[in-house]
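Data availability excerpt. The first of two example chains:
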Amino acid sequence: MTTVGFIGSGKIGSTVARLSLAAGYDVVMSNSRGPQTLQELVAELGQGAQAAASEQAASESDLAVVTIPLKAYQTIPAAPLAGKTVIDTCNYYPDRDGKLSQLDDGSLTSSELIQQHLADAHVVKVFNNIFFKHLLSLSRPADAADRTYLPIAGDDANAKAEVTAFLDAIGYGSVDVGPLHESWRQEPGTPVYGTPYGPFSDPAGTPADEASIRAALAEAAR
């Protein structure tokens, strides 16, 4: 049984956890405030879910999901994630995170910044471009005609293959954006950010096929 560990348990994290449990994974949830603050969420998620400190969630995970404000990236426990695939859902919002010159001038993407911190892990960016309600509602079986696709970026081919298999299990196809340096194509303000999945005012969302995601990525410009 694969265990998915969550560093951050907000709207995206808890949604990915729900999809993971439905697909047969176990989940370990954590946040910055301690496991005692997650008991209600874990009870709601049900069997297969537990709360833990961030270090424990990282060490017990086979696959980790980091879903925290980017300004807190240095709090991600690096040592227990060494050698593991880490899904990065984070976005850079200067008003919230403060100005980061390397991101502002394009010399780094936010995922490359996280990869630098997690030097011995394999970071793959995904889930950052979709509204959490759409992420829950648009999950479909592999053979569904209206299956939705998500962009992924990463520097390690094996890690991207692992994340692709995970996405498939929880109900999504994937479109490979390329290395982490190209992950700006799926960041806030780009055509693939939110728009392909419909307005936030519609909680059901709109399925987005592979062609529409590829087209949106191709339209991205700096």
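And the second chain:
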Amino acid sequence: MLRLYPGRTPEEVLDSAMALAGDRFIGFSTWRFMEGHRKTGGQPVYRYFYAHPRPKFLGGYPAPPAGTGGATPATPPPPRGAVHSAEIEYAMGNLATNTHFEWGAADHKLSEVMQGYFANFIKTGNPNGPSLPSWPAYDGKDGFRVMRLDAESRAEPEGTRRERYLFLDPFYVKPGRRP
């Protein structure tokens, strides 16, 4: 466990705690679903990792709850990555409707890329298209590459995520019930 979620420094502890929390919250179960579909669905699977933190918060929401380390809407802590569901407004192309953040050129570029991928996938079952970074299918033939959606989107190796999910797998799958 400590090889996959190391904690030799305070920074590593925070990174590993976030990774484990994310894996247990949604990462592992999504991976499990995709693995089942990849093995039995007969169609390619395209996996993404959304990594783009929201830009500067401009205010307008209630103050953060207690226990946020003194962060306020005016002085939030520095982002440690993207928050769950932040990609929705990018994919839907409605950044302008959320006036609580200081959207910049990188945000609008990512939104256009995501809209292109999602529209292509809806129309053809494949997210790829002209002027979009190539998004390989998620399979062992290509080393389980994942599309990292960020200011500069790119396909990248899955890294330790797959190892972490394989490590977690026996804790969640009951004997005799493996798909």
